[in-house]
Amino acid sequence: MDGIYAQDEERRLCLIAQSYSICENSIAVLSNLRTGKSHIFFGKSCKILGLGKSNTIQTVDSVWEEEIYNRIHPDDWKKRCLQELTFFRKVSSSHSKDIFSWYLENTIRMCDKEGEYHYWKHRIFYFSGDGQQGISYSLCLYNLTSEDSEAAYLINTMTGEKKILLTDGNQLLSAREKIILQMIQNGKSSKMIAEKLGISKHTVDRHRQNIIAKLQVNNTTEACHKAKRLGLID
């Protein structure tokens, strides 16, 4: 995609995210999964969390908004990550354009500046860029809610269909990918891993890239950290 056109596309999506933050008083996060940057739009509800200032924008070099994530209850953080990565896997592995009509909705607990937890509704939408295959952008919306739901739902914006998302952390990475990531966690290089497993270094490097993509991180250091928190490796 032409660089200038890509910037125009991202600016248009930023306007959409900003509109949500204004109309719903929500916190909206638009992430470019190809560049690894996110734009956070703070609606009025950000005052509850003590994050940012109303009607301001923050840009970060990550698709995981750590400042927001740090406010999520530890149990809900793990649950939310598994749900989000499961949804990402479903969308990225689908060959149907209709898959982008679905979004994920779940409920999480987030603590305010006083340390008190409140329920927040979280929604995530994925978009493909014009002329691009696969997922290019994600839009996350955080809204205060009085509802407490353990389930995560997939909702179709075209049909209204709603179904429960079933998660299984064991399916996020293959058995071989877990072994390789555990060896990386233990300080082994690609060359050492290749010799140990009897495969080529090229194959190891391909597994590393697949792991990074599946866990939506920037590098294997972040992959090890996230996988450990999710209980995928020791």
Automatic annotation (TrEMBL):
<dbReference type="InterPro" id="IPR000792">
    <property type="entry name" value="Tscrpt_reg_LuxR_C"/>
</dbReference>
<keyword id="KW-0804">Transcription</keyword>
<keyword id="KW-0805">Transcription regulation</keyword>
<dbReference type="Pfam" id="PF00196">
    <property type="entry name" value="GerE"/>
</dbReference>
<feature type="domain" description="HTH luxR-type">
    <location>
        <begin position="166"/>
        <end position="231"/>
    </location>
</feature>
<dbReference type="InterPro" id="IPR016032">
    <property type="entry name" value="Sig_transdc_resp-reg_C-effctor"/>
</dbReference>
<keyword id="KW-0238">DNA-binding</keyword>
<dbReference type="InterPro" id="IPR036388">
    <property type="entry name" value="WH-like_DNA-bd_sf"/>
</dbReference>
<protein>
    <submittedName>
        <fullName>Response regulator transcription factor</fullName>
    </submittedName>
</protein>
